[in-house]
# Entry
Amino acid sequence: MTITIASIGNGPSSEREDPKKVCQKKMIWHLLQGITLWTIWIERNDQVFNQEHWHESNLKHLIWDELIMHSIVAWARVVKFVEIGSFLERL
# Structure
């Protein structure tokens, strides 16, 4: 049996997930990978150039905080888009 992103958490593989949901999961996964790699890069630079070591729990919290911050910014863009759309409808 082949495990794909579409079949994770779905039960039998005969049931396929909505392509939009799969795309959203991929986007979140790629975003999380980017945030994690960037945070580790910054931590390593701090170790090499400033001789400062970050505790593992601080790294995890920072990664989580960055993901939440990205979500807040993305939601703000949606709200702004909706406000602009409703403004344009009133014209």
The longest helix spans residues 56-90.
